[in-house]
Design goal:
The chain has 206 residues and is of the alpha+beta class. It is built from 4 helices and 9 strands; from the N terminus they run αααββββαβββββ. The protein has a 5-stranded antiparallel beta sheet. A 4-stranded antiparallel beta sheet has the order 7-6-8-9, with helices on one face. A hairpin with a 4-residue loop joins strand 3 and strand 4.
Length: 206
Amino acid sequence: MPFWPRILSKKRKSDRHPPVTGSGPEARSGFSLVEMLVCVSIIAVIAAGLMSVFFAGVRIWKRASGGGFSRMSASLEAERICSEIRQCLPLQSVGCSGKKDEISFPFVSPGGRVVRVNYKFLREENRLKRSETDMASILAEDEETSERYVECFNGLSAEYRSFDKDNQSFVWQETWDKSLGAFGAVRLTFKAGDEEFSRIIMVPGR
């Protein structure tokens, strides 16, 4: 059989399966507009739900991490203040004194200098101020004071334990005069944000 009849006898695939025409079910080759709109709506609802859950989780994480950091900072700062009071010195020339919102005492700084430390809560500014004065400048009557603010507290109150001779018992009072010597015990109530917590500092040797 010659070559060219075989070529003519071969039909293309498109000839064997001609394109479907008409309006029946076999004529549909894609999505209709309604189907597309339904798909887009479903995807939009799912995406909106996922995004709301994601952002809610981010807000909770930020609130938790920020609150935890603030509480940790306040706790560490409170422990540092308590440690300084616990190491106060019984120096009559300076003395320990205190009020409800202020406490002052001599203390040996990490550098080995004897200083007078003063903590005072400023109600007008709603923050705690720490002042430190070198003992040499106090004796020379030329006081040089360094100050800094403890920003993590928005409240501080102090009480001082004393012995009531009439009732023969210990009581807490809101003032302490330096003529009484070093503190026996101090109770500090800190306020950090919406939380309050107390620390009782026992001074050794009293």
